[in-house]
Amino acid sequence: MDAASVITDSSISNSLQRNDMQMKLINKMSVQKVKRQVGKYELGQTIGIGMFAKMRLVRDLDTGEHVAIKILFKKKVLKHELAEQIMRNIATMKLIKHPSVIQLQEVMGSKSKIFIVLEYATGGELLTQ
């Protein structure tokens, strides 16, 4: 094998590896972009984590308003038989309208998650106040 064919084969191999890495990066970015949005909400930082759910700060893409989203994991909810309790909590939140109570704005679902969109209140947890 001569030097020219080694260089050519090596160059082609390097070029293919670079293209493959670039495509993986683009695909990863596309997947991340999809995960960064739920409905009309752009996901922001995680502001709380519990046993069955995660709270994240989100931005309403229509209004620009910041709200919170509670992301419940259906598998965990079903495993611990909490589906009825979650449904009751959502029904109660829909009924309560008071300036001192965080307001429910929207409920959405996917195959594996329940998304509860809530008014965002700054200041941390009430227990720490």
Please describe the structure with a list of short key phrases separated by commas or semicolons.
transferase; Phosphorylase Kinase, domain 1; alpha+beta; ATP binding; Kinase-like_dom_sf; serine/threonine-protein kinase; 129 residues; disordered N terminus; EC 2.7.11.1; 6-stranded antiparallel beta sheet
Give structural notes.
- Residues 41-129 form the Protein kinase domain.
- Its EC number is 2.7.11.1.
- Keywords: ATP-binding, Kinase, Manganese, Nucleotide-binding, Serine/threonine-protein kinase, Transferase.
- The chain is of the alpha+beta class.
- The chain folds into two domains: 1-35; 38-128, Phosphorylase Kinase, domain 1, CATH 3.30.200.20.
- The chain is built from three helices and six strands.
- A six-stranded antiparallel sheet has the order 1-2-3-4-6-5.
- A hairpin with a 3-residue loop joins strand 2 (41-49) and strand 3 (53-60).
- The radius of gyration is 23 Å and the shape is globular.
- It starts with a helix and ends in a 10-residue tail after the last strand.
- The relative contact order is 0.11.
Topology at a glance:
Elements: H1 3-35, E1 37-38, E2 41-49, E3 53-60, E4 66-73, H2 74-79, H3 83-95, E5 104-109, E6 113-119
Antiparallel strand pairs: 1-2, 2-3, 3-4, 4-6, 5-6
